[in-house]
Amino acid sequence: MTELPPYWLRDNCPCAECRDPRNGQKLFQIGDLPQGLAIATSTEADGHLEVLWSDGHRSRYPLEWLDEADGGDGRTERDKRLWTAADFAPGIPEARWEAYLTDPAEQAAVLAAVRSDGFAVLRGVPVLERQVLRVAESFGYVRVTNYGELFDVRVEPDPNNLAFTSAAIAPHSDNPYRDPVPTLQLLHCLENSATGGDSGLVDGFKAAALLREEAPDDFGTLTRTPVPFVFRDHRTELRADRPLIDVGADGRIREVRFNNRSIGTLRGEGLDAFYTAYRRFAAITLRPELQLTFRLAPGDCLIFDNTRLLHARTAFQQDGHRHLQGCYADVDGLNSTLAVLRRRAAALDAIAALFAGEGAGEYLGEEVTMAEHMLQAAAAAEAAGAPDHLVAAALLHDIGHFFDAHGQESQHGQDLMKGQDNRHSDSGADWLARWFDPEVTEPVRLHVAAKRYLCAVEPGYREKLSTASEYTLNVQGGPMDERQAAAFAELPGARDAVAVRRWDEQAKAAGAPVPGFAHYRPLLAALMR
Which of 43, 290, 316, 470 has the smallest CB count inside 10 Å? Predict the structure, then answer.
């Protein structure tokens, strides 16, 4: 590990001196690091690289973090599934609106499809005006443009855009004349009773990749030539000079802007080469095997990546009505929501694994396992009509028995039975604080103190403790004195901690039938940050 660049390694030090523990932001400037910074010593222990620096600072890095590959921002072809229409013969990515709203896994699957395939369709979205805005707000923020926060796609008497006619629309990107261009578009079908008017999609990245394969010089021309995209009406004038195919620093395709209706007049040298490449690329986008065609029904909402997919429409007759409402959003909001959903899912998987693994072990001399004890406490809280945050606190109150003071998994609970206070309430609350607010973590942090408090102020409480609980009481400091009890009672989370403590004491019945961890997973997901 000593071959790692010193300034890179120190710039990524995760300690509380270098980063705010609440938000992870750095507390120093790169110029604050001393000239000639070097690693004095380094050792690997307990899954970490521990470094002593030449200026005396100490850093501790998880080895698995050091081995992580750079995932990038997910915007280039590297992180996409490039497709042709045949790839969706089994069906396009879709979900029911209600399931998407209520099941985090379903929402994550929809957003992941937009990220990977470039699109997804939500079925059963209420056929109501402005409902498309609610869809966008479910994962991000609406981008307001000169078309407003939303726009109606229907035949208009005086259209400022061919989209507002019944004419066929060839595969294209929307708003290429903006910089930055809206990266997501949503189209919600309110009515579609006209003959024709089917929707179409083309994977612009796939088309660009085919151009690169078949005519690399043409591909290079389209990545290097800035194209003036222009839009004008009586109150708007927009222009952005961008290439039809934009690549990142690594040469991978990152954006496609393709809209023949919005291309202005190119001037200068290389026009013959550009038009040769432009025509070849346009022909590729019209290949039948790249055309995915489907029909939106009322209640369907299409979400797609406007910097990748080209969307189209067949002409329609005016023997019925076709009315879509659309809006724009940005992919960074979608990516953020997806990352949070995946982070929550990973955290819940980790907690579930603790219940299934270490939780199946002995609970400090009681007749129940650790998992049974925590599940019974949660069931008692639920039966008492407790709010969700207290059900969660009851479920997770003893999670700290599985961790040491650094948050590393261990058989830490055994220390308590050997007469050493493992301060599991603190380690558990600290571990949970990565995902939960204080309304959940503070009752966990204070539940041991609540036992000591109740033993001091409530006659007869101590006599009801089990033998094991009496033993751990003495290890943890015994009953509070009068001053300690008065101070505890003033703490913001004291009342909730006392409630969790009472459910804790009820949760020691071997074989009691209670719901498993999966029952509480949606509740925990809703409470996570």
Answer: 43
Residue 405: both structure tokens together? 């003071």
Burial bucket for residue 346 (CB in 10 Å: 0-12, 13-18, 19+): exposed
The helix/strand/coil state of 39 is: strand
pTM for this prediction: 0.84
206 residue type, one letter:
K
Q: CA nearest 255: which of 184, 186, 169, 338?
A: 184
Going by DSSP bridges, is the β-strand pair 199-203/309-313 parallel, antiparallel, or unpaired? antiparallel
Q: CA–CA distance from 207 to each of 174, 210, 253 (Å)?
A: 17, 5, 11
Give dist(CA 227, CA 241) in Å, integer.
5
pLDDT in tens, 74-133: 999 999 999 999 999 999 999 999 999 999 999 999 999 999 999 999 999 999 999 999
List strands edge to edge, sheet with 58-62: 39-45, 48-53, 58-62
Nearest C-alpha neighbor of 307 from the set 175, 145, 183, 179: 183
Which pLDDT score, from 0 to 100, does residue 405 have?
Answer: 46
Average the pLDDT over 142-152 and give the result.
Answer: 95
**Across 168-193, average pLDDT:** 95
Question: ∠ CA 381-386-390 to the nearest 5 degrees?
Answer: 75
Q: What is the CA radius of gyration of the chain?
A: 30
pLDDT band at 421 (very low <50, low <70, confident <90, very high): low
Lowest mean pLDDT among 157-161, 234-238, 471-475: 157-161
Question: Is 250 exposed, middle or buried (CB count within 10 Å of its CB: 0-12, 13-18, 19+)?
Answer: exposed
Cis peptide bond N-terminal to 180, omega within 30: yes
Quick one: tokens of 376? 């019974």
User: Rounded mean pLDDT of 18-29?
Assistant: 89
Q: What is the pairing mode between strands 245-247 and 48-53?
A: unpaired
Nearest residue to 142 via CA among 307, 306, 326, 329:
329
Let me know: does 325 contact 190? Beta carbons within 8 Å. yes
- The 3 state secondary structure assigned to 486-504 is HHHHCCCCHHHHHHHHHHH
Nearest to 170, CA basis, from 324, 296, 309, 286:
286
3-class DSSP string for 163-216: HHCCCCEEEECCCCCCCCCCCEEEEEEEEECCCECCEEEEEHHHHHHHHHHHCH
Cα dihedral angle (150, 152, 153, 158), rounded to 10 degrees? Answer: -120
Looking at every residue in the chain, the average pLDDT score rounds to 91
Q: Which two tokens stand for residue 261?
A: 């209706």
What lies within 8 Å, CB to CB, of 85 at 6+ separation is 288, 289, 290, 291, 292, 293
**Pairing of the two strands 94-96 and 119-123:** parallel
Under 8 Å between Cβ of 223 and 246: yes
Q: Are 312 and 187 in contact (CB under 8 A)?
A: no
